[in-house]
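debug: dumping io for the single-chain case to check the tokenizer round-trip. Nothing else runs in this session.
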Amino acid sequence: MLSKRLKAARLKKKLTQQELANRLKTTKGTISNYENGHSTPSNEMLKELALVLEVSTDYLLGVTDSINTSLTHLPDDEEEMKEFFSNPELNLFFREMKESPEEQLEELREIWEVIKKRNKK
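debug: decoded output
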């Protein structure tokens, strides 16, 4: 299940194996082995794959058929917010945010709105 879903998610993002490997600081061969079922990613790598591909680890593992993550739940009018959180330099921040309770996520969204308003002035 993991190998098929990983490949499907990569193709949906229009990434080559090499491009995905570059983003994860690994090799094309490693990605190929995951997609062919020859090896399995570590828990940490699984989380990184899910983050880069914008899917849940549960989706990759076949626990759920829902591909959604908190990033894809953002309203369409917050496209800038999506770009902010998909910035590779901010992945650490986003990774920590994903584990936050919903009330903290709402506070972060409110803070983001304040930042956007400041930038428009």
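debug: round-trip ok. Confidence is low (pLDDT under 50) at residues 70-77.
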